[in-house]
Specification:
Strand order of the largest sheet: 1-2
Structural class: mainly alpha
Helix content: 55-70%
Strand content: under 5%
Largest sheet: 2 strands, antiparallel
Shape: globular
Order of helices and strands: HHHHHEHHHHHHHHHHHHHHHHE
Number of strands: 2
Oligomer: single chain
Length: about 500
């Protein structure tokens, strides 16, 4: 596999007119991110989360460089100034290695081979009732929040929206929005675990409504979350890839993602239409967006592609090169909101709110404007706080946390609603969300685990019967063959 990738890099470097990305860095990164093939046995087993993390890691730090080999775009994001591997690339490689080591160490410590009691699961009736209810509540809260309360992404719009409803109401809205993905997961789980065909049209309808809602409120994550959760649930429950859903997702990225880009730039940005105006004139807005799609997504001033939006190598490079030279180390300051994760703002009115993405933009002078948010990435933020120590220890700790989830909620042993929810929340916040701010992602993760625990206590009433994997029982030795009990006669 590594030899084939090296050959691909060689061909791309020979045929590319742009500055070639670093051959050694990309080869080492690919070798690191493909190392999971040594251990993985099932797509929903103990090593599945490590495999997914390394895949996202490669997309975040290497896929764009590879793509540029076969395009006429500018060269790589990080330069080495003549060195075989730049400092930024060394940070990326060391961070990835530390994470993989922490994950594997936790699997060893967790000792998942020990005997466990049979977990408990939700009843089918509870799933089918709670799923639509939670999704409906979450969808209404998301719609009302982004259309009528916080009508724009600026700091002023957020402050005005929060002031209009008060702290308690705002907290309730945020909590209700967290219920939306849980509702999708419950119905997707019921569809795959118990196979009622009548649920398929419902799930497809939910995914389509998520796309429409995400379009109106201009949040791609909301539009994509439905399909992503269905795909992840299929993989975790069935232990194999859902080909039709994957094809549909790829088509969405290729065909629909550019439309969202055009909407944000040409309609929501240039024309300044509010979300309520978009909703009232949805057909006209859609026509204008489609008409502007080619203009926005082509040319020298085009919107970013999916890979360009997915990469965080540039922001990591800025942090690594300038921290300690032009900017001070944060020394844990951006991580402090994690300590107050379970203290509601209604009890602590002066609870600190650290807009890390906006602070990064101001400190490193990335772009003009107070409302500009720059994703530091988890790796970059760890370096920004503690330098190399943060990269090694922090990434190893992240790997250990994800490894704990992989070991203790192994879906290749038992599939239950609780295991699905914990695994998917971990994937969303700690793996797919590695481009974001650590505190924001981990606070949501911790609160979600608490909520899942409460739901488990309320609804998990029946023994788990959907056992996918049982350890083979050692057969009793045949009579007269006691010297070699493993040899059958």
């Amino acid at each position: 596999m590594n030899v084939a990738f090296a050959l691909l890099l060689g061909i791309g470097s020979a045929t590319s007119n742009s500055a070639a990305p670093h051959f050694i860095y990309l080869s080492l990164l690919f070798a690191l991110c493909s190392s999971f093939v040594i251990d993985i046995d099932r797509l929903n087993g103990r090593h599945a989360l490590l495999a997914l993390y390394l895949l996202v890691y490669f997309v975040s730090y290497g896929a764009l460089d590879v793509a540029r080999l076969f395009s006429e775009e500018a060269g790589p994001l990080a330069q080495s100034d003549g060195a075989l591997v730049s400092k930024t690339e060394a940070v990326i490689l060391v961070g990835g290695f530390a994470l993989a080591a922490g994950y594997r160490l936790m699997l060893y410590i967790a000792n998942t081979d020990r005997t466990r009691r049979v977990p408990r699961d939700w009843s089918v009736r509870s799933i089918l009732i709670a799923g639509p209810v939670l999704w409906g509540i979450g969808t209404y809260a998301t719609y009302d929040w982004y259309v009528h309360i916080v009508t724009d992404t600026t700091n002023e719009a957020v402050r005005r929206g929060l002031a209009s409803v008060g702290t308690l109401t705002a907290s309730a809205y945020i909590l209700m929005q967290m219920l939306q993905p849980i509702g999708i997961l419950l119905l997707a789980y019921a569809w795959r675990a118990f196979a009622p065909r009548s649920l398929l049209p419902v799930i497809v309808g939910m995914v389509i409504l998520q796309v429409l809602l995400g379009f109106v409120i201009d949040i791609k994550g909301t539009a994509m979350i439905g399909g992503i959760l269905v795909i992840i649930t299929c993989v975790l429950v069935d232990g194999r890839l859902p080909k039709s859903w994957l094809v549909a997702f790829v088509m969405f990225v290729v065909l629909v993602f550019p439309i969202f880009q055009a909407y944000r730039v040409a309609i929501h940005g240039d024309r300044g239409l509010s979300r309520t105006a978009v909703l009232a004139n949805f057909g006209t807005v859609l026509e204008l967006t489609l008409a502007q799609s080619d203009k926005v997504n082509t040319g020298s001033h085009r919107a970013q592609t999916f890979l360009e939006r997915s990469t965080v190598k540039g922001s990591t490079q800025v942090i690594v090169e300038k921290t300690g030279v032009e900017a001070d180390f944060q020394r844990g300051n951006t991580l402090t909101p994690i300590l107050a994760a379970f203290i509601p703002r209604i009890l602590w009115t002066d609870k600190p709110d650290i807009p890390t993405g906006q602070i990064m933009n101001k400190v490193f002078h990335v772009a003009e404007g107070d409302d500009v948010y720059i994703s530091p990435s988890h790796l970059g933020e760890l370096y920004w706080n503690f330098g190399w120590f943060g990269v090694v220890i922090g990434m190893a700790l992240i790997g250990a946390i994800i490894g704990w989830v992989g070991a203790c909620f192994n879906l290749a042993e038992y599939r239950t609603v609780t295991r699905i929810l914990v695994t998917v929340v971990t994937i969303k916040q700690m793996i797919v969300g590695i481009e974001g701010v650590i505190a924001a992602q981990y606070v949501v993760w911790l609160r979600s685990l608490a909520g899942i625990g409460i739901l488990h206590l309320i609804f998990a009433r029946v023994p788990a019967v959907s056992l996918l994997f049982r350890r083979p029982q050692t057969p009793a030795p045949a009579a007269g063959n006691r010297l070699y009990p493993n040899l059958l006669t």
